[in-house]
Design goal:
This protein has an 8-stranded mixed sheet, with helices on both faces. The chain has a single domain, classed as HUPs (Rossmann fold, 3-Layer(aba) Sandwich). It contains 9 helices and 8 strands. The protein has about 220 residues and is α/β, with parallel strands linked by helices. The protein is globular and about 50 Å long. Strand 2, helix 2 (about 50-65) and strand 3 (about 70) form a beta-alpha-beta unit.
Amino acid sequence: MRAGILGGTFDPVHFGHLRAAEEVADAFDLSTVMFIPAAKPPHKEERELTSFTHRWRMLELALAGNPRFALSDIENRRPGKSYSVETLTQLLSQLGQDVFIYFIVGLDAFLALPTWHRYRELFALCHFVVVARPGYSLAKLDAMLHTAVSERYRYDEQVPGFVHPEHRTVYVRQVTLMDISSSKIREYVSRGRSVRYLLPAEVEAYIYEQGLYGRR
């Protein structure tokens, strides 16, 4: 079984998240992509986040109708900070060691991996699928892996990605470019600007019904 994992605050979820998950699922023949909203992300103050309940409901609305997409509250059920290494360890214990996990992450987030809690352990737990924009720098990825993880990582054009004799593979994939961000959506809502076609209509309606991201 191949399962994709897409974590984040999803505040709110938008078409960039959904399209990237869909394209990666196709590319790697994933049986499921599990969206995991962070309950207490280590790099964000709780006051910056919309409540988990609202972010969860927006994800439910966005994922409805796609049988390959799943939603997990594993990080909300666990006390303390939402560390990815703990989430993946827990998932593997539940799903079984014969499941291959593909951790979908943006290029900027991957380059910041050395700031994550026990980040080196992740390379023994899952493959990475680094979602990159056109014109991305392989040199930056190569430098980060060599200096922060292992000098034995080598780029293989046939993969394409970085392979290691003992660790999991770091794949690199370009997906449809969508210049959408959750922060931009929050700003637009707060200023009374339209967010139509940036996120599912059901999520947009929920935002206005609940008065999220209030106008300045």
